[in-house]
Amino acid sequence: MKQDCLILGLNASWQKVLEFEDLRLNGVNRAQRVTSFAAGKGINVAKAYQKVSGRSPTLLQFIGGHNGELIKDDLNNLAITHHSIETQHNTRVCTTLCAENTYSEIIEPSYAANPEQWQKLSKTLLELCAGQILVISGTFLKGATASFFEAAQKCAQKSPIYLDSVHHPDKFSEIPLECLKINFEELQQLSGEEDLEKACEKMNQNWKFKHLIITNESKAVYHYSHGDMDKYQPPTIDKLINPIGAGDTFMAALVKARQEEESYAKAIEYAMTIASKKCLVDRIEDLVL
Predict the structure, then answer these.
(1) Residue pLDDT, tens place only, 221-278
(2) How many structural domains compose the chain?
(3) Beta-sheet pairing, 93-99 with 102-107
(4) What is the pLDDT of residues 191-210, one digit of tens each?
(5) CA-based angle 43:47:50, to the nearest 5?
(6) Strands of 221-225's sheet in order across
(7) What is the CATH number of the domain that holds 47?
(8) In a domain, 51, yes or no
(9) Closest Cα to residue 76, out of 52, 59, 93?
(10) Residue 54 belongs to what domain range?
């Protein structure tokens, strides 16, 4: 029986995508089209998981203010199950500027969740995680409390955890992980090593993961496990539309394939294929499988 999927998104956003014929610095840029929707890494993984699996995951997140209400409406329209912890601050807006084969991302600052809100999220996490695959994705709102990491440690005893975040490495390195997914720059940051193999060996010594996946945009994907490393080449993308969310789509597809008991090799090949298709559309919900 397949495990359900619980996704923890700790920094949601209301996303705006502005499309232009051309982008110029120091000049007026008039958008041809504007699209708005719920996003942030946790939400992106949830949308992509629903798309590839045909099932709704459960999303646990912080949101607040008017933008938080817009996010809830979008998730409800998509029939994605969510538990939203309200914060005192309006959820950030992220704006993507797209022109042919180029893009830029403008990200508003996020604000802290208070200890009571972190406590509520931690309690809900413990209530939901049993028997589910747990995906933790993205940046953290400031103010994370010890109760959250204690809850994550308890969840690891009954749920495989897939982590796509470099925040709080001192805490997460002590939590058993099924899979840690990071990019090459983050690998260097966490390990203190520039060489790929040395960096992976250092991570293997200091972290408690079974599998480490390293991505590098359109370049090779590496899979490291128990001292062995494999290299995979993503598909070529002929016409880039919007790559934002491709990494989250990769994570969702990887989890779906692993739920179906595919090997990591097959799961990574599948995840690369689906992630490349995300680059051809603005929104994950427009993904054509």
Answers:
(1) 999 999 999 999 999 988 888 888 999 999 999 999 999 999 999 999 999 999 999 9
(2) 1
(3) antiparallel
(4) 999 999 999 999 999 999 99
(5) 135
(6) 81-86, 58-63, 4-9, 132-137, 161-164, 177-183, 209-215, 221-225, 228-232
(7) 3.40.1190.20
(8) yes
(9) 59
(10) 4-12+40-91+112-286
